[in-house]
Amino acid sequence: KAGVTQTPRYLIKTRGQQVTLSCSPISGHRSVSWYQQTPGQGLQFLFEYFSETQRNKGNFPGRFSGRQFSNSRSEMNVSTLELGDSALYLCASSLISNLSYEQYFGPGTRLTVT
Amino acid sequence: AQKVTQAQTEISVVEKEDVTLDCVYETRDTTYYLFWYKQPPSGELVFLIRRNSFDEQNEISGRYSWNFQKSTSSFNFTITASQVVDSAVYFCALSRRDGGKLIFGQGTELSVKP
Q1: Residue A17 bridge partners (DSSP)
Q2: pLDDT per position as a tens digit, B32-71
Q3: SS3 of B80, please?
Q4: What is the Rg, in whole angstroms, of the alpha carbon atoms belonging to chain A?
Q5: pLDDT mean over A21-43
Q6: pLDDT-based confidence at A2, cuts 50/70/90?
Q7: Which class for A71: exposed (0-12), middle (13-18), buried (19 or more C-beta within 10 A)?
Q8: Residue of B nearest to A102 (CA)
Q9: How far, in Å, are A7, A44, A94, B32, B33 from residue A106 at the CA level?
Q10: Could you say which of B46, B50, B101 has the minimum Cβ distance to residue A45?
Q11: How far apart are the CA of B51 and the nearest CA of chain A, in angstroms?
Protein backbone atom coordinates (compact mmCIF):
# COMPACT_ATOMS: atom_id res chain seq x y z
CA LYS A 1 0.00 0.00 0.00
CA ALA A 2 1.41 3.40 -0.89
CA GLY A 3 2.21 5.70 2.00
CA VAL A 4 1.27 9.31 2.56
CA THR A 5 2.55 11.55 -0.20
CA GLN A 6 3.16 15.25 -0.02
CA THR A 7 3.90 17.71 -2.78
CA PRO A 8 6.00 19.63 -3.30
CA ARG A 9 8.86 18.40 -1.15
CA TYR A 10 10.67 21.72 -1.13
CA LEU A 11 9.44 25.23 -1.67
CA ILE A 12 10.99 28.68 -1.52
CA LYS A 13 8.67 31.65 -1.30
CA THR A 14 8.96 35.35 -0.62
CA ARG A 15 7.36 37.21 2.26
CA GLY A 16 3.83 38.27 1.43
CA GLN A 17 3.21 35.50 -1.06
CA GLN A 18 0.84 32.61 -0.52
CA VAL A 19 1.48 28.90 -0.79
CA THR A 20 -0.57 25.73 -1.19
CA LEU A 21 0.69 22.35 -0.03
CA SER A 22 -0.88 19.05 -0.99
CA CYS A 23 -1.27 15.75 0.82
CA SER A 24 -2.57 12.42 -0.43
CA PRO A 25 -3.41 10.02 2.40
CA ILE A 26 -3.00 6.27 2.52
CA SER A 27 -5.76 4.60 0.55
CA GLY A 28 -8.82 4.10 2.76
CA HIS A 29 -7.78 6.67 5.34
CA ARG A 30 -10.35 9.39 5.82
CA SER A 31 -8.63 11.60 8.35
CA VAL A 32 -5.83 13.98 7.41
CA SER A 33 -3.96 16.10 9.92
CA TRP A 34 -1.37 18.80 9.37
CA TYR A 35 1.56 19.71 11.62
CA GLN A 36 4.20 22.39 11.55
CA GLN A 37 7.70 21.56 12.75
CA THR A 38 10.21 24.25 13.62
CA PRO A 39 13.41 24.10 15.71
CA GLY A 40 12.00 26.54 18.24
CA GLN A 41 8.41 25.37 18.65
CA GLY A 42 8.77 21.69 17.80
CA LEU A 43 5.85 19.81 16.31
CA GLN A 44 2.60 21.72 16.47
CA PHE A 45 -0.84 20.65 15.33
CA LEU A 46 -2.44 22.84 12.68
CA PHE A 47 -5.75 21.16 11.86
CA GLU A 48 -7.46 17.88 11.09
CA TYR A 49 -9.98 17.04 8.42
CA PHE A 50 -12.30 14.08 8.41
CA SER A 51 -14.80 13.41 5.64
CA GLU A 52 -14.24 16.89 4.21
CA THR A 53 -14.98 18.62 7.53
CA GLN A 54 -12.52 20.31 9.84
CA ARG A 55 -12.71 18.32 13.05
CA ASN A 56 -9.94 19.86 15.11
CA LYS A 57 -8.00 23.08 14.90
CA GLY A 58 -4.77 24.20 16.53
CA ASN A 59 -3.74 27.66 17.65
CA PHE A 60 -2.59 29.19 14.41
CA PRO A 61 -3.69 32.46 12.82
CA GLY A 62 -6.34 32.56 10.15
CA ARG A 63 -3.64 32.84 7.47
CA PHE A 64 -3.39 29.08 7.77
CA SER A 65 -6.30 27.25 6.22
CA GLY A 66 -7.02 23.87 4.78
CA ARG A 67 -9.55 21.74 3.05
CA GLN A 68 -10.24 18.15 2.20
CA PHE A 69 -11.68 16.76 -0.97
CA SER A 70 -14.10 13.89 -1.47
CA ASN A 71 -11.22 11.53 -2.25
CA SER A 72 -9.67 12.44 1.15
CA ARG A 73 -6.79 14.36 -0.41
CA SER A 74 -6.08 17.52 1.50
CA GLU A 75 -4.51 20.88 0.85
CA MET A 76 -3.30 23.53 3.23
CA ASN A 77 -2.85 27.14 2.32
CA VAL A 78 -0.80 29.84 3.96
CA SER A 79 -1.50 33.38 2.87
CA THR A 80 0.66 36.45 3.36
CA LEU A 81 3.73 34.44 4.23
CA GLU A 82 5.99 35.59 7.05
CA LEU A 83 9.60 34.64 7.72
CA GLY A 84 8.43 32.66 10.76
CA ASP A 85 6.38 30.38 8.54
CA SER A 86 9.59 28.70 7.39
CA ALA A 87 9.18 25.15 8.61
CA LEU A 88 8.70 21.51 7.76
CA TYR A 89 5.01 20.91 7.17
CA LEU A 90 3.97 17.35 7.84
CA CYS A 91 0.77 15.68 6.83
CA ALA A 92 -0.53 12.55 8.52
CA SER A 93 -3.37 10.24 7.65
CA SER A 94 -5.35 7.97 9.90
CA LEU A 95 -8.02 5.35 9.56
CA ILE A 96 -9.88 6.65 12.65
CA SER A 97 -11.78 3.65 13.78
CA ASN A 98 -12.49 2.12 17.16
CA LEU A 99 -9.44 -0.06 16.72
CA SER A 100 -6.95 2.25 15.14
CA TYR A 101 -5.91 5.82 15.78
CA GLU A 102 -2.37 5.69 14.51
CA GLN A 103 -1.35 8.59 12.34
CA TYR A 104 1.02 7.82 9.50
CA PHE A 105 3.14 10.69 8.32
CA GLY A 106 4.32 11.78 4.92
CA PRO A 107 7.85 12.98 4.13
CA GLY A 108 6.89 16.61 4.62
CA THR A 109 7.18 19.82 2.63
CA ARG A 110 10.06 22.05 3.61
CA LEU A 111 8.99 25.65 3.15
CA THR A 112 11.53 28.43 3.20
CA VAL A 113 10.28 32.01 3.28
CA THR A 114 12.80 34.69 2.29
CA ALA B 1 -4.78 20.89 29.16
CA GLN B 2 -2.69 18.15 27.68
CA LYS B 3 1.07 18.19 27.79
CA VAL B 4 3.97 15.86 27.00
CA THR B 5 7.42 16.32 28.48
CA GLN B 6 10.58 14.68 27.24
CA ALA B 7 13.18 15.99 29.63
CA GLN B 8 16.13 14.49 27.79
CA THR B 9 17.03 16.75 24.89
CA GLU B 10 20.03 14.74 23.70
CA ILE B 11 21.42 11.35 24.58
CA SER B 12 24.64 9.89 23.29
CA VAL B 13 25.52 6.22 23.72
CA VAL B 14 27.99 3.76 22.30
CA GLU B 15 26.71 0.93 20.14
CA LYS B 16 25.34 -2.07 22.06
CA GLU B 17 24.49 0.00 25.11
CA ASP B 18 20.91 -0.02 26.36
CA VAL B 19 19.17 3.36 26.44
CA THR B 20 15.88 4.56 27.90
CA LEU B 21 14.00 7.58 26.62
CA ASP B 22 11.69 9.17 29.15
CA CYS B 23 8.22 10.53 28.52
CA VAL B 24 5.88 12.10 31.07
CA TYR B 25 2.41 13.27 30.12
CA GLU B 26 -0.42 15.30 31.58
CA THR B 27 -4.09 14.89 30.78
CA ARG B 28 -7.43 15.05 32.56
CA ASP B 29 -9.00 12.57 30.17
CA THR B 30 -9.66 9.04 31.34
CA THR B 31 -9.40 7.69 27.80
CA TYR B 32 -6.38 8.70 25.79
CA TYR B 33 -3.68 7.30 23.55
CA LEU B 34 0.09 7.46 23.78
CA PHE B 35 2.48 7.12 20.89
CA TRP B 36 6.15 6.98 20.06
CA TYR B 37 7.50 8.15 16.72
CA LYS B 38 11.00 8.07 15.27
CA GLN B 39 12.29 10.85 13.02
CA PRO B 40 15.49 9.91 11.18
CA PRO B 41 17.56 12.56 9.39
CA SER B 42 15.37 12.16 6.31
CA GLY B 43 12.62 13.93 8.25
CA GLU B 44 9.71 11.53 7.95
CA LEU B 45 8.04 10.57 11.23
CA VAL B 46 7.88 6.80 11.59
CA PHE B 47 5.18 5.30 13.81
CA LEU B 48 6.57 2.92 16.45
CA ILE B 49 3.80 2.15 18.92
CA ARG B 50 0.37 3.15 20.20
CA ARG B 51 -0.89 2.42 23.67
CA ASN B 52 -4.35 3.21 25.02
CA SER B 53 -4.95 4.34 28.56
CA PHE B 54 -6.65 1.11 29.60
CA ASP B 55 -3.79 -1.11 28.59
CA GLU B 56 -0.86 -0.90 30.99
CA GLN B 57 0.81 -4.02 29.73
CA ASN B 58 4.40 -3.46 28.78
CA GLU B 59 5.27 -4.28 25.22
CA ILE B 60 8.37 -5.66 23.58
CA SER B 61 9.11 -5.62 19.88
CA GLY B 62 12.53 -6.92 19.05
CA ARG B 63 15.09 -4.59 20.63
CA TYR B 64 12.38 -2.08 21.53
CA SER B 65 10.31 -2.13 24.70
CA TRP B 66 7.87 0.27 26.27
CA ASN B 67 6.92 0.75 29.90
CA PHE B 68 3.57 2.45 30.55
CA GLN B 69 2.79 3.46 34.13
CA LYS B 70 -0.42 5.41 34.73
CA SER B 71 0.49 5.95 38.38
CA THR B 72 3.42 8.12 37.35
CA SER B 73 1.97 9.29 33.99
CA SER B 74 4.98 7.93 32.19
CA PHE B 75 5.47 6.03 28.96
CA ASN B 76 9.17 5.25 28.64
CA PHE B 77 10.91 3.67 25.68
CA THR B 78 13.94 1.41 25.94
CA ILE B 79 16.23 0.33 23.14
CA THR B 80 18.30 -2.72 24.00
CA ALA B 81 21.69 -3.23 22.39
CA SER B 82 21.49 0.04 20.47
CA GLN B 83 22.74 0.27 16.90
CA VAL B 84 23.98 3.17 14.80
CA VAL B 85 20.77 2.97 12.75
CA ASP B 86 18.83 3.88 15.89
CA SER B 87 20.26 7.39 15.71
CA ALA B 88 17.29 9.70 15.27
CA VAL B 89 15.00 12.06 17.11
CA TYR B 90 12.32 10.24 19.06
CA PHE B 91 9.00 11.83 19.89
CA CYS B 92 6.43 10.84 22.45
CA ALA B 93 2.88 12.00 21.73
CA LEU B 94 -0.55 12.04 23.34
CA SER B 95 -4.00 12.19 21.80
CA ARG B 96 -7.51 12.38 23.12
CA ARG B 97 -10.12 9.71 22.60
CA ASP B 98 -11.06 10.89 19.10
CA GLY B 99 -7.45 10.51 18.02
CA GLY B 100 -7.36 13.48 15.68
CA LYS B 101 -4.82 15.75 17.32
CA LEU B 102 -1.42 14.67 18.53
CA ILE B 103 0.35 16.62 21.27
CA PHE B 104 4.06 16.02 20.89
CA GLY B 105 6.90 16.29 23.34
CA GLN B 106 9.97 18.26 22.35
CA GLY B 107 11.77 15.13 21.24
CA THR B 108 14.94 13.37 22.34
CA GLU B 109 17.83 13.26 19.91
CA LEU B 110 19.57 9.92 20.24
CA SER B 111 23.06 9.53 18.87
CA VAL B 112 24.51 6.02 18.78
CA LYS B 113 28.22 5.98 18.09
CA PRO B 114 30.08 2.97 16.71
Answers
A1: none
A2: 999 999 999 888 899 999 888 988 888 888 999 999 999 9
A3: coil
A4: 13
A5: 94
A6: confident
A7: exposed
A8: B50
A9: 10, 15, 12, 24, 21
A10: B101
A11: 10
